[in-house]
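Hi Prof. W.,

I finally got the Beta-lactamase prediction working! I wasn't sure whether to trim anything, so I left the full sequence exactly as given:
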Amino acid sequence: MRLIYSTIFIRLLVIMLPCIVLFLIACANKQTNATKAFKNSNLVSNSNNKSLKTSTIDNEKEYKELHLIQEQFSRQLLLKQNEYTKLCDRNEADSCVKLALSHQLNYSATQYEIYNIYNKANKIYDEECRNGNMSACSGLGALYESGDGVEQDIYKSKALYKKACDGKDARGCLNIGLEIRGCISCESNMENIKRALPYFEKACKYGSNSACHMKTQSQRDLENLINSNL
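And this is what came out:
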């Protein structure tokens, strides 16, 4: 189950906008700095009240900056939610998925509401996939793998990814590769990497930058594994 969720998470990150990631990174950096400042302030002896006050002021500034970044992130996310809502209302399935994800990030909707958004995306993907839209087949496969808006069905998910990849859809090939490769941060398995690599190469050829990165990483990991066994 951990393997499934690790690969699903990667796929969800692929479709989220870079600005959201940048804000999250900024928040994390500020929080780390604030924590360090707080810990460092505790190291100041009581005999040095002036230094302690200075550290406390700096610490408060760090937390204020962190709070400001979080507010900016929430505002940006709200703007994106409005954009995704309009596009989802026009039956653009990818935007429906992004809308549901943004609500999950911002805790701005109930689980029931989020489920219904995913379910709408599922219906749109299903119709478009039947009509030959390979990208929609990939999107539908992702929902069946995660169980968002539909009953989870790993076998159906695999079949949809294969159909999309055979139709030269980059996301479908990437998802198959990720599924075969498994947990990226776990100990590498040479056979899995060998089997996954052709799918990363196809997805890279079809225009996926994420797949190009995975191709390079897999080639490097494979080379390291071969060298370690010499």
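The radius of gyration is 22 Å. Does that look reasonable to you?

Thanks,
D.
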